[in-house]
Every structure is written in C-alpha cells, then in structure tokens.
From TrEMBL:
GO terms for molecular function: oxidoreductase activity. It comes from the Bacteria. Keywords: Oxidoreductase. SUPFAM superfamilies: NAD(P)-binding Rossmann-fold domains. The keyword Iron-sulfur does not apply. Its EC number is 1.-.-.-. This is SDR family oxidoreductase. Gene3D superfamilies: NAD(P)-binding Rossmann-like Domain. It comes from Nocardioides zeicaulis. InterPro entries: NAD(P)-bd_dom_sf (IPR036291), SDR_fam (IPR002347).
Amino acid sequence: MGRPMIVVVGAGPGVSGSVARRFADAGHDVALLSHDQQVLDALVADLEPRGVAVGHAVADVTDEQAARDAVRRFGEHTGRIDVLHFNPSAYREKDPLSLTVPELLEDVALGVGALLTVVQAARPFMSAGSRISVTGSMAADEPWEGAASLGVQKAGVRNLVHSLDKALAPDGIRAVSVTVRGTLAREGAFTPDRVAEAVWAAVTRGEAAWTSEVPYAG
C-alpha cells in the first residue's frame, strides 16, 4: 500500500513546517505547496534526511487553476492523499475603517477560498480515513481591529471546515480546524512544534471522538 502521504498547503518555516516534520517523523511522505522556492528548498533539505519522499511545487494558491494542478499532480504521483493540511492566511495591518472591500476579498480568497480549491482537487485521491486539517486562530473569536481581515478569514475558514466535515463524513473523510488560542512564540506552549503536535493529535483521533474544531490553549 505504500506510506501515507500528507499535502501541506502554504508550507513555510512556522507551524506548517513543523506539521510537515511531525508527520514525516511518523512515516508520512510529504508534498509541499508554497509560493516561495527558497522556503521549499529549506524544508526539503530538512525533511529528506528523515527517510521519506518529499514532493514540492511553487504556486499561488489564489490562482485556482495553478493550485488545482499542483495538488492533482501530487495525488496522481502517489495515488493517495491521506492528510491535507491548510495553513495560508493574509496578515494585513488595516483596521475596518481603512480596509477596502477589494482588500478584504483578496485576503479572504487566500485564507478561506483557497481551502475550497485544494480540497476539491484532493478529493479524488482521498478515501475513508483521510483527514483535512486547518491552522485556526483565536482571531476568529477575538479579532484585533488593527488587522481586521485576519479575524474574518479565521472565522470563515473555521465555518467552512464545519461544512466540509459534514459533507465528507458519510465517506469516512473528516475535517478539523485546530484553533490556536495564543500567540506563536519561539519558547513555551505556543511554539510551532507544540502546535504541530496538537494538529497531529487532532488528526489521529478515532471516529468516535471526532469534532470539527479542536482548541489548543497550550
């Protein structure tokens, strides 16, 4: 059957990179999607010595066709996608009195809409037991007005995860948003590695314990 495979969308040096490492250490092959080739090169150099296969592609996930094509190529290469982890969001330091509608829609296209694109592309390669995970944030419930679009993105993507979970559950595929209720830091409870461990725990729960949101409060 081969090793299970995780696709990490919005791969970078923070939580998503830690998620890739956590799943690689558990024996998953890894596919990375990012807009930055240098970031991908660094992650590949870190992951390959762990003894897993690593695929990667550069694409802007708001370019629907490019993102679909990249995810489809990952699935066609391995024949399976066991976990799809979605990490992208836009941080735009504008309050709601200065944020324009086009800016808000641009940010939502990245932080929410791109999840639809990659899930739809991945679905033909997912089967019962496959999982979708999303890096959530307390900004969904406690937005900072100085970056108003971020809270909208995180509330929207969590809502979309709930819908995806309900739509896919009859096929044995589940979705979860891991809501990080703290600020990422280099030390303490909210390091990227600790958050990645929370993602791992959320994804590997049994069906009986499944919920489409898991809070991580450290």
